[in-house]
Every structure is written in structure tokens, then in C-alpha cells.
Structure to design on (280 residues):
């Protein structure tokens, strides 16, 4: 029996987590997936607000009612469009680790999380809950900023650092893009545009092309001296990219994109969904 593609979407019922649910449901339709809406209870924080409810009975009933309401809304909208099921789950513990542990337990294929975008990332992106899940987790993770509502992606931008895993990653991206007939930009940002840079890029193109069975793929080499992240932002703006994809195999490459020095300058960039591929 073929295992269903499984999407896990943690929610704290905030605006940004509701946006993440919308993305999770829409992708679940395309993957004909099992979607699980997940909430982690922090008992200590709750007891500060309701010290009389020591056993957490009222808290649990309240949370189940909210999750069931979301579940019904998703089922009504998405089951007729391809989503196989929508389930709810509540666990107690620490939010980040609890989510990652549950993702591993259910063998989730994709984790869809919301982020406050510029507000949450003002000081440093590494440290927010969403970025901790990306950094510590071993599952593909789609980070959806607040106020970014789902729309059919016209263009998916994949930032390549010339890794061997690009050959596997691009196949995942092609599958995703084909659901929406989206264009793909496979881009490498270089600090220069010398003959060697061009030669390396052409070599990468020749190695990756046999793994692509999709017509709408552009191979792009861009020079941006100041910073990799700003170069990506510039390309997203000029090409009107809708989703940025990175391969989190090399931590230094991931951190180049999210350094403290540039995160404050990248309002456009971090207000686009980010898909970090973690496994194959």
C-alpha cells in the first residue's frame, strides 16, 4: 500500500499560523495528502492565566474546539479538491522540539509553519521558532510569513550553491511547479562574473539538465558583489518570484542568506514563502 504524502502544520491560532494552514491545505490538495493540524500545549503559561484549572480540563476542551473548527473549514474547502484527510493532534511540551518530534513520529514529508516575518525576524532570523524548526529539523519546511496569502505561484526560485544534491532537489521542485504550471529559475549568485564563474555555471547546467523533465526551467547566473542574500532579493524582485527554495545541506550557505547584517534590509525577501529542502 502506498503511503500518503503527509503535511504537518503546527498552529497557535495566530494570523500567521492561519496563513500557514491555507498553504498546507492548498499543497495538500495537489499532493493528495494527509494533513495534520498540530498544537503544542505550554501548561506553565496556561496556569499563569488560569491557576484554578490545574488539570487543564477547560484548556484542553477549548483547544479541541478551536482545532475542530479549523479542521471542519479545511475539510469543507479541500477534501473535494484532492486532500485525502485532515486530522488534529494536541501534545504537551516545548513548541519547537515537540513539533519536530511529532514530525519525525508521523514521518511527515512537509512541515508548513507560519512566521511573523519582519517583526519576528527583526533582530536575527536564527532564533525565531520558525527558523529553529528549519535549523534543527530534518524535514522539508515551508515557512509562510504573516500577511502572505496563498496564490498560485507563477515562478519558483531555487538558489543553488552547486551541490551534488541539486540533482535530487530539482526533481522535487519540478513536481511542485508542475502542479501549478509554474516557471522555475535555478539561480546561482556569484560575487563576480569572471570566465571561471561562467564555466562552473555551464558545467552545473550540463550536469543537472538530464534530471529535469520540465520545459519551464531557466538557468540563471547573477553577479552581486555586496551579499548573496541581497542578490537573491534583487532577483526575486526583478523576476517576480513567488517562492524561494534553498537546500539546507551546507549550513554556511543557509546562514549567508539570513545574516543579521542583511535581515533588516530584506523586507521584500522575507515576505515571500521560503521552502527549505532537508531530505530526499
Amino acid at each position: 500500500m502506498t503511503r500518503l504524502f503527509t503535511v504537518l502544520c503546527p498552529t497557535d491560532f495566530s494570523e500567521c499560523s492561519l496563513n500557514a494552514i491555507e498553504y498546507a491545505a492548498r499543497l495538500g490538495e495537489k499532493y493528495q495528502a494527509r494533513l495534520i493540524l498540530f498544537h503544542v500545549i505550554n501548561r506553565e503559561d496556561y496556569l499563569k492565566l488560569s491557576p484554578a484549572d490545574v488539570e487543564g480540563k477547560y484548556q484542553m476542551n477549548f483547544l479541541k474546539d478551536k482545532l475542530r473548527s479549523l479542521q471542519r473549514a479545511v475539510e469543507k474547502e479541500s477534501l473535494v479538491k484532492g486532500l485525502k484527510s485532515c486530522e488534529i493532534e494536541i501534545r504537551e511540551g516545548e513548541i519547537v522540539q515537540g513539533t519536530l518530534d511529532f514530525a519525525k513520529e508521523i514521518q511527515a514529508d512537509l512541515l508548513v509553519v507560519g512566521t511573523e516575518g519582519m517583526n519576528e525576524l527583526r533582530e536575527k532570523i536564527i532564533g525565531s521558532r520558525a527558523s529553529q524548526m528549519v535549523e534543527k529539523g530534518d524535514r522539508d519546511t515551508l515557512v509562510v510569513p504573516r500577511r502572505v496569502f496563498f496564490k498560485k505561484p507563477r515562478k519558483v526560485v531555487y538558489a543553488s550553491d552547486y551541490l551534488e544534491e541539486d540533482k535530487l532537489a530539482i526533481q522535487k521542485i519540478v513536481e511542485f511547479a508542475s502542479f501549478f504550471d509554474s516557471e522555475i529559475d535555478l539561480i546561482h549568485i556569484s560575487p563576480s562574473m569572471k570566465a571561471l564563474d561562467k564555466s562552473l555555471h555551464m558545467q552545473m547546467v550540463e550536469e543537472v539538465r538530464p534530471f529535469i523533465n520540465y520545459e519551464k526551467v531557466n538557468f540563471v547566473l547573477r553577479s552581486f558583489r555586496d551579499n548573496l542574500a541581497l542578490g537573491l532579493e534583487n532577483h526575486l524582485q526583478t523576476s517576480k518570484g513567488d517562492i524561494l527554495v534553498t537546500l539546507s545541506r551546507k549550513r554556511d550557505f543557509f546562514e549567508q542568506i539570513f545574516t543579521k547584517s542583511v535581515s533588516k534590509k530584506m523586507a521584500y525577501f522575507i515576505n515571500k514563502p521560503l521552502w527549505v529542502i532537508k531530505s530526499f
